[in-house]
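pasting for ref. prot 1 ->
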Amino acid sequence: MGKKTKKAKTTTYGNPGAYAMARNQAGCDWAAGLLLYRLKFRWGQQTKLKRHNKEWVAMSRSDWAKEAGLSESEMKNRALPKLRECQFVTIRQMKLGAVKLLWMSLDLAKLHEWTKDDETHQMLLNGATFPGYEKPPGNYPYKQAE
């Protein structure tokens, strides 16, 4: 009888998932990453509205916050300002009929340009800084004694 040989595993583990990639694309901020994750989901699932030569997904601010699992203050004070800095997302407040909604547009070509490879992604999550990812001075309120 012949020897049994083990088959090599073809599955790889440890690659970043969809939320991890969205967090990376949103500048490593978890709240902005959640909102971007939901925007990318809606972008692929829903019929989009057309206005100003762009396609948009529109919902109320509170509905965006609920979908992303954020409080309205986290959404307003953290996620939206961070996403507005991203070149691949356009966020505007416009009316649809008589209702004022938050409209978001996603440029997939620019999003792909901003996507980092797995190795860079891991270093960013571990606190490395690259051009464009520097933390602003004074963002940590406590200073160490020198």
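and prot 2 ->
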Amino acid sequence: MYTYEKKDKQGILKIKISKENWEKAVNEVYEKTKGKFTVQGFRKGKAPKKVIEQTYGDTVFFDDAFENVINEEYNKFLTENKEVVPAGYPNVKMDSFTVDKGIEATLTFDLMPEVKLGNFEGLKSKKKVVKISDAQIDAEIEREREKHARFVEEDKVCENGDFATIDFSGSVDGVKFDGGTAEDYRLELGSHTFIEGFEEQVVGMKKGESKDINVKFPDNYGAENLSGKDAVFAVTVKKVEKKVLPEVNDKFVSDTTEFETLEEYKKSIKEGLTKAEEDKAERDYEVALIDEVVDRCSLELPASMVDHEVEHMVEDFEHRLSHQGLKMTDYLAYIGKTLEEFKKERRDDAEKNVKTRLVLQKIISKNNIVATSEELDAKIAEYAKHYGIELDELKKNLSPNDFAYFENDIVMTKLLDFIKSKNK
């Protein structure tokens, strides 16, 4: 049994659970969880409810039973009142609980905000005109030259751009520190791989030469025990190599690529760069259009929706860090921020994400933008052809989430086409 009222953009749902329904919920939890309890003299799952309560406490089943009956009533309410759309999880407060009368509880939740769409006629976003310069083509060729560079050992002093193979051992106040010693380390001079001042002092040394290099660790260095400290590195140069790049000509092209002439190669690079730049320009254009559409709409977001989005963003970031073998706590220590400061910095982006999502959903709903069965079949067939998979075999192995992915892809494409049609 429930009563509902809307107050200040919030829903307030009062739920009453009868004594009989409460007892039923407790018994259901007992039947479901009794196998987890160990009671002396009984096999697992065979101890009577009263005995488990005497052993583990009278309220041992209450938490799960309370959650179950509240969720059941809450879902029943939402099913019977589809016009009520919560913006997040409800806050649950138990008002009273007695053996004779059952439970009374209040659920308070933010309501989904009303989205007021603006006038989309005459959008003004512009798509960048792509023009590939000779410098961009030359840069691509230069990267290919770097891949095929040769390294020639020379009896010479080290210069920027050379590769010096060195032994080094670092110390602070005469004491060596972890990670400060290595042998046969191949260092590209001028790459700024080491702390400031180190590579500059290797320049001018020659093979077989040893000397002490004095440097100072930055104040914000990752290792706290070294931050701001003066250090001495004993360095020995064991080899000096000069990088030699191949000459760019038809021979270089035919030896290293699928093309025969430099002219053909440059043409291919230009086509590839043009395609990549045009794809990026199209994505940027779509983002600009969506931003313009969202700016023309009005809605007031409940703080709970933004809070939830921030938590989701942080969890996603933490997950990506884990793939790099990093922990969130270590990352925060490295950038010198607390978790709350990190979350606060993401709040504006979270608000923009939620607002954009709600506006696009409203446009989709208002304009009845859907994926037809024919479009879905065509999209799946296109995917199967692209990856060389038999269509029937692919369809047989697709999960509901896979179908939802294809459907969403179609809807978003049609949505963007709809928005683009409003751009003047």
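Residues 95 and 105 are 5 Å apart (CA to CA).
Residues 262-295 form the longest helix (34 residues).
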